[in-house]
Design brief:
Helix 1 packs parallel to helix 5 and helix 5 crosses helix 6. The protein is an alpha/beta fold. Strand 10 and strand 11 form a beta hairpin.
Length: about 270
């Protein structure tokens, strides 16, 4: 039984002022890791890869669809409806994000597709990643892991009325054990910006090192008779690695906006 994966990375935007440099590279690194042959995770056939490369940095060695608003909405819908039969869902997003209107501090950001030009108009009906993740709590597969490398900046709303999306769950219609188990790791705490440095985002680079097992402490699993990387250890390592990079930047007289990763857990222990 294969895992499923949805990986999204955006460097190029129709609004040139929003250009990023490391998001697509980090998304490709995650896609390569999650489909690594023999690792028992996703396969190229169960991977959905949506990218928006910058024109001067094209992607030539991977098959993908453009990370437009319509393609992202379609991919989120497909994974919500078609997770049965998979053991785990892996999700990775690298690109622009903003805090949702009226959202709680632990709310996932609104993500920004490549073809958004007017951010105020888009915010009236955005792709609310937090709502989708909550909807996935009652969808297969049971185990779901989310990595979100995006800013969670606060946009001041000048409108008198702010529309927010409310979800209502009738859990009486669910059988025991049908709720998912989710582990979410955000690149930042709410209100903070995500930084790029060199060839990777601070979060993306630390995350990939952690997933490859080059930094975090592994824990013994007596049942599997092997050492495993837990989500809690991965989150700890990512935070520690980013803090170390901030200290390096400070010693070099460079100032980076504060960035502290944050995790959100549903029905799982850290």
């Amino acid at each position: 039984m294969s895992d499923r994966a949805l990986v999204i990375g955006l460097d190029g935007y129709d609004n040139a002022a929003w250009e990023l440099r490391a998001a697509v590279r980090d998304a490709l690194a995650f896609a390569k890791w999650v489909t690594e042959p023999g690792a028992g995770r996703a396969t190229p056939g169960t991977l959905t890869l949506l990218l928006s490369p910058h024109p001067v940095r094209p992607v030539k060695d991977a098959e993908f669809k453009q990370a437009t608003e319509s393609e992202i909405r379609r991919a989120l819908y497909n994974h919500k409806k078609n997770g049965a039969g998979a053991e785990r869902l892996w999700f990775f997003y690298a690109g622009h994000g903003i805090a949702p209107a009226g959202g709680a501090p632990d709310a996932a950001p609104v993500i920004v597709p490549k073809d958004v030009e007017d951010i105020d108009y888009y915010r009236s009906n955005p792709i609310d990643l937090g709502s989708w993740i909550r909807e996935m709590q009652v969808c297969a597969p049971e185990h779901q892991v989310y990595f979100v490398d995006a800013c969670r900046g606060i946009v001041v709303n000048e409108d008198v009325v702010t529309a927010t999306k409310m979800l209502f769950f009738d859990l009486s219609k669910m059988k025991a054990g049908e709720q998912a188990r989710q582990a979410v790791l955000f690149a930042t705490t709410a209100g903070q910006l995500a930084n790029e440095q060199g060839l990777h985002g601070l979060f993306g680079g630390a995350l990939m090192d952690g997933l490859r097992g080059t930094g975090p402490a592994l824990e013994a699993d007596a049942e599997k008779e092997e050492f495993v990387l837990t989500f809690g250890r991965l989150a700890e390592y990512t935070k520690r690695r980013i803090q170390a990079q901030f200290e390096e930047a400070r010693r070099a007289n460079r100032i980076l906006p504060t960035q502290e990763p944050a995790e959100s857990l549903f029905r799982v222990q850290s």
